[in-house]
Model the fold of this input.
Amino acid sequence: MNLHLAMNFFSVILLLLLFTCSLTATAQTDTIYIGSFKHKNFLQLYAGSFSRKINFTPSGKEAEQHQINLSPNSSAFCGFVLGYKKITLYGDVALPQTAKLNRQQTNVRAFSFFASHFNNKWGFTGFVSYNRGLLMAAENIPAMYNNRNDIRKFTVGVHSYRIFNASKFSYVAANTQQMQQKKNAGSLILVLTPSYRIMQSAVSIIPFEKSKYHLRGEMTMSRQIELVSVQLKPGYAYNFIWKKGAYFLAPSVYAGPGGDYHQLIQTNTKYTGINFNLGYRAKLTAGINRERFFGTLEILQDHTRSFIYRSVYKNTYTECSLNAGWRF
Done:
């Protein structure tokens, strides 16, 4: 499957999700549990840090000795969200002197985009990311990295949510604070995640000297790994409430299996097949949610591992942020 077909595939999925959300009857909200705010417009400021780890680990006894650890040149960030009427604007910048390597040391760059929409029963979060090069951790030397400017990585997908106790539990209140949870409540949530991932290298994704421990176990160049994936992650979210919603603690966790259709290109040979994957997504949000002011601490981790021949291909995203907002 090429990139053009993958984008068409996900465009159809996104349209189907939007169509499903629009046709699904909105659950009647129990106002004893969930309330709205008089002021709908808001300005939110945030700051935080993130990391993404991309690992190839052999499935045999050589796992630790021959694993390959890749990552973008991640840094701390700050930004804003402005919600006015039906328009929401976002902007953020990387904080200087916080990246793993400065711009004089590396040409590695990363770009990402997120979009989400929720009603009380359904919702989705779409994501797109592109990496122009990655850093590869040096063996046995902490905090040292080699530039892998030969690698390109592209990811697109969507987390779609089905919230089963929408009359008493507000996903929006727990995650974006644009509603207010007034009493303790939780819900079973089902998360379906289709995604498309492709990693390419003009040289070899797996260094040649380690290639016999990875993928098909052959001493050859791995030019491309392409995955079309689906994961189904059942989970649960809960919102602990104090002072009628003024203070809250909202943990959530989802985990489950899935499958990948993979395409591997090694030197001039193409291999295709189906493999198993596992994933989880965990988030903790805590803070204040009042009529005019809201402030939160958020911690998120999203992990997927795909079992491809002799390798376990892991992708872990971790984020921690502080948020403060004012409604007007």
Summary: The chain has one domain: 3-327.
